[in-house]
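Section 3.1: Structural characterization of target chains.
Under the original work plan, the team committed to producing a structural model for every single-chain target entering the pipeline before any wet-lab resources were allocated. The record below documents one such target. The sequence was received from the expression subgroup and is listed exactly as submitted; it comprises 93 residues.
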Amino acid sequence: MDFMELMKIAREATSPSIDEECGICLATAGVRCSEMCDARGALAVTRVREMVRAMTQEAREQVWREAKEREERDDETPGFFWAWWAVDEEMNR
């Protein structure tokens, strides 16, 4: 698994409950939260962390290097922010 795949996981994370209005980004019931919604982001970070924790140390280091390079280029690809946050926290805990 590479960092692009982790970004995809983060990007596709949906809000914890789409059956109710989101109290953070105010998405209406049945509509996904906005990409930068903290509720959606928390779920994305959790999912990416789980994937990173399941990797070997070598794979984690490779993903972290990929993420760091993208961060240095100010990547704005959807899903980047949440995936980078999760990978960086896992590597620095």
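The chain has a mean pLDDT of 89.
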